[in-house]
Amino acid sequence: MDTRGRRVVVIGGGPAGMMAASVAGSRGLDVTLIEKNNKLGKKLYLTGKGRCNVTNLCEVEDLIANVPVNGKFLYSAFYTFTNRDLIALLNSLGLETKVERGNRVFPASDKSSDVIKTLERYVRQNNVKVVQAEAEGIAAEDGAVRGVRLKNGDFLPCESVIIATGGLSYPSTGSTGDGYRMARDLGHTVTPLRPSLVPLETQEEWPRDAQGLSLKNIGIRLEDRQGRIVYEDFGEMIFTHYGVSGPVILSASSYIGKADPNGYRLYIDLKPALDHDKLDERIQRDFLKYSRKIFSNSLDDLLPKKLIPVIVRLSNIPPDKPVNQIKKEERQQVVMLLKQLALTIKCYRPIDEAIITSGGISVREIDPSTMESKLVKGLFFAGEVIDVDAYTGGFNLQIAFSTGYLAGQSC
Ligand SMILES: Cc1cc2nc3c(=O)[nH]c(=O)nc-3n(C[C@H](O)[C@H](O)[C@H](O)COP(=O)(O)OP(=O)(O)OC[C@H]3O[C@@H](n4cnc5c(N)ncnc54)[C@H](O)[C@@H]3O)c2cc1C
Questions:
Q1: What is the pLDDT of residues 362-380, one digit of tens each?
Q2: Whole-prediction pTM value?
Q3: Number of domains, the chain
Q4: For ligand 1, atom 26, which residue shows the shortest CA distance?
Q5: Which has the least CB within 10 A, 40, 67, 113, 229?
Q6: CA 140 / ligand 1 centre spacing (Å)
């Protein structure tokens, strides 16, 4: 195709937009990347706790399997630009990468800022014009894109527009849902937007007493209202003033799916390395060691300080009861609490605290082999703005890069 003189405007300078703009630029198109922040990739900076889990080095089929919502829609995108392609590209641009537990890929430097710098270099190499401005709307005529209106009153005429404005979470990074509105104005359907990979509020108030306490190496089990197990995991979590957060909790939240989380039960295994009997033996040893103390002073070897008053209260054993008077049934109650510390979920935290937005531009209205709108010629989508969402592990960024690549190649 003769691409000379064809103008493309990419709205949003996150990973999807930077990739789309660079790929379009590499084809000789006249590309403008509009970003409302004064720097590119503001959300990318926060990813992976500042280390940026760029992708996951699994098989492509497993990439799809890790996208519970509309994974099959991404078949072409994932195969056109795979996780291995992404790593090869980043390496060729000078960014070394490393693979960690669970095939998670990070920059070797552990710095998300290095990923941003690398993508900025890619954008520059491909002659993309970066403009700091806020896009307000897209003009279309006779079913085809004509240009982009900016908030400052400017109009950028073009033949293609790629919407890569991200979702609704962490709005301070610029992801304020503008793309949903722009697409709706052009007749697109936006499926209900809700938080995913999000902290959970609990009905019980005791997590507040342990707030700030981070627990590593714990087990969790999440059950629905019928007692069916929806998720089990092992790892790290944190108590907060509203309930629970941290990696295993965020992952658990995405398994609740579209259901109302109210009434789901979370069971925390504080001692997953010890089975019930071994833990009982361990507590008996501690009780022997502290036999002259009172109950509330007997758990120091077993539990973090912040959790002791909580467990003492939940056990219904008087805190001042001498340890040598604690009955077997009471001790077993403590074992139960440590193996199955139960919480009842009330709701998700608000969407602005979520890692990703579930819902978005309906995939029924997007051609999966090009990312072009089926309604408006020359309109393309890339990244989180689309109704796809994945589990943690680098899958969400791979979605941004693969859909960005495909849109940049097709526009
Ligand atoms: C705390 C946190 C940690 C995360 N960690 C990981 C991780 O380690 N691995 C992983 O795979 N995923 C992670 N994610 C998810 C991942 O960051 C997102 O899925 C990804 O950034 C989506 O990319 P995007 O380009 O579609 O959108 P975004 O990164 O949100 O970028 C959209 C851009 O568009 C701009 N924009 C919006 N509207 C306009 C407008 N009207 N005009 C101009 N510009 C506009 C915004 O300012 C923004 O810069 C994390 C998310 C969060 C919040």
A1: 999 999 999 999 999 999 9
A2: 0.94
A3: 2
A4: 383
A5: 229
A6: 26
